[in-house]
Amino acid sequence: MRAAVAVSQDASNPLAGLVLQQVPDPVAKPGWVKVRVKASSVNMHDVWTLRGVGHDPKNIPIILGCDVAGVTEDGREVIIHPVIADANAGEGDETLDPNRALLSEQHDGGFAQYIVVPERCVLDKPASLSFEEAACLPVAWSTAYRMLFTQGQLRAGQKVLVQGAGGGVASAAITLANAAGATVYATSRSAENRALALELGAAEAFSTGDRLPERVDLVIETVGEATWAHSLRCLKPGGAIVIAGATSGTSPEADLGRIFYHQLRVIGSTGSTREETAAMVDFVERHQLRPVIDRVHTLDEIHLGFQAMIDGGLSGKVVIAIP
Ligand SMILES: NC(=O)c1ccc[n+]([C@@H]2O[C@H](COP(=O)([O-])OP(=O)(O)OC[C@H]3O[C@@H](n4cnc5c(N)ncnc54)[C@H](OP(=O)(O)O)[C@@H]3O)[C@@H](O)[C@H]2O)c1
């Protein structure tokens, strides 16, 4: 089968390590399922792997792609919960299993014609979504779901700030928080993404760093260094920042005085449990939500999709369709 494989890592030229090649079809071992991939979306995680950030070089070569929608051999239309982990090893929470792995970290990912995954990772695709749309959900939407509702304990009527509206996690967070009855403020560097935030349900959208009309209960942070100080300033006393990513850098000034004086809570979040991914899918169906797609490429055009991710300025997800 044809696949997009990470063959090397280079911080300054990540695309040099992304190669399209013929590889053997995968074989499902007992308890695993073979899925014909129909679409797989690109995440910053794929770029970090090619840059050599957070990915052990000993797991290279590996097929990239952690966000997958497809069809099982018995014809079931599915999306794939992207975390391979053991809840028992995480004291009941699979995201706390020290050996947890996102697809494409230790097991081949979805930029290929077939993928094999544990049976528990296979969930029914929402019937209302196309394969391209469904392939946007597993990583970004489940991450946003855990950030808002598990880690952030968001309730209807609360105020939320979502930083960097154009990102996959951020745009999902705006949509989910609005549907849950929160008042959502969003920031973006671009007028286009501020307009997108309003379309997704934000009450107001601001330029990055602008003063909000009021302080918020919760900040959803994936931008990192560029927005951290603003995130801290925007919180009510006792409020929480849930952080799942730091695209612009991981080492902002901590501003410890503000954190302890206002009793702010800084909460990390990574991935989602299978139950959270399934709850997110139910929520999406119940509220008839749709992810925003910036562009769709074929597998042969995958480098264009990665370049768009690296260049930034996207409004929604980049999807690779594998018809
Ligand atoms: N922990 C997890 O489980 C998990 C899961 C998924 C993703 N992540 C991480 O979360 C981060 C977000 O990923 P993503 O795929 O959603 O989106 P992304 O494309 O990495 O970007 C997030 C948004 O940040 C804003 N941004 C980027 N650079 C900026 C800068 N220098 N100054 C101000 N704003 C900036 C942009 O929004 P505007 O253009 O609208 O300003 C961008 O759309 C990544 O680092 C990713 O690795 C973590």
Automatic annotation (TrEMBL):
SMART domains: PKS_ER (SM00829). Residues 13-320 form the Enoyl reductase (ER) domain. It comes from the Bacteria. Gene3D superfamilies: Medium-chain alcohol dehydrogenases, catalytic domain, NAD(P)-binding Rossmann-like Domain. InterPro entries: ADH-like_C (IPR013149), ADH-like_N (IPR013154), ER (IPR020843), GroES-like_sf (IPR011032), NAD(P)-bd_dom_sf (IPR036291), Zinc_ADH-like (IPR052711). This is D-arabinose 1-dehydrogenase-like Zn-dependent alcohol dehydrogenase. It comes from Glutamicibacter mysorens.
